[in-house]
Amino acid sequence: MKLLFDFNSEEIQREAENPMARIPVVIIADTSSSMNGEKINTLNKEVEKFFYEINKNSRNEILKYSLDLAVLGFKYDTQSRETYPTIVNNFNIMEYQNVPKFNAFGHTPLGATVNAAIDMLEKRKEMYKLGGIQYYQPMLVIISDGDPTDNIVNASKRAMELSLNRKLSVYPVIVGNDGNLDNLQKFTPNKISKRIRTEDLPQVFKWLVSSVKKVSESSIDFDISISITKDWKDIING
Prior knowledge:
- By secondary structure, the protein is an alpha/beta fold.
- The protein has a single domain, classed as von Willebrand factor, type A domain (Rossmann fold, 3-Layer(aba) Sandwich).
- The protein has eight helices and six strands, in the order αβααββαβαβαβαα.
- The protein has helices at about 10-15, 40-55, 65, 110-130, 155-165, 180-185, 200-215, 225-235; strands at about 25-30, 65-75, 80-95, 140-145, 170-175, 195.
- β5, α6 and β6 form a beta-alpha-beta unit.
- α4 (about 110-130) crosses α5 and α7 (about 200-215) packs antiparallel against α8.
- The longest helix has 22 residues, at about 110-130.
- The radius of gyration is 17 Å and the shape is globular.
C-alpha cells in the first residue's frame, strides 16, 4: 500500500514563509485490536492533552510554529483482511493540526509503518532543503503493546543506521505485559526501549513536550539528543 505525501512548489513556499527552524517528530501509535479498551482510551486522552499543551500553553508558544508533527497508525482493510500503515496526521506545524482520534482494530504491521515513517521524514527533509528551512534532528516515538505481525528486518536496519549516523532518534515503548520488548529494541542502538503500564502513558507525552521545548531552545548545530535520552531513561520507569 503506497502512502502519498508528495509536496508542491506552493507548499514549499508556504512552509518557507515560517521563519522557525523545524522539529520533525513522528509518532507511531499502535491501533491494533489488542489496544482496544483502556489502552486506546488512555492514548486518545493523552494525545489530546499533548495537543492542548502545545497549542494553548503560552509557555510553549514557539512550539506551535516549530514542532512539525506527523502521526501514523494502522488501518484494517475489510476486503483483504490485511492491516496497513495509515497517515493519521500528515506533517504540519501544530498551529494547523487537528487532534487525532484512534480506534483499535486489526493487526500490528510495525515494520511497514516504521518504513513509512522514515520515508516521510526523508521526504520532509527534502522539502526543508528545497525551501531553505533549518531543522533539528528528527525524532520517532513508537507506542505499541505487542509483537509486530510483519517483518521488521528492513525497517529496523534503516532506523538503526540513521540513529548511528545521528540523523534520527528513536524512542520506543511497549504498553502492558504482552509482547517482546527486544523487538522494539531493534529500532535503536540505545538501550532505551521501555515497558510501561497504561497509566504511565502520560509520562511519555510529558517527556515529549519537555523534549521538543528543549530542542526549540537549543542551537541548531547542537546535538541535544543525549540530554533528551537521559530524560527518557529517568522519567519513563518500566
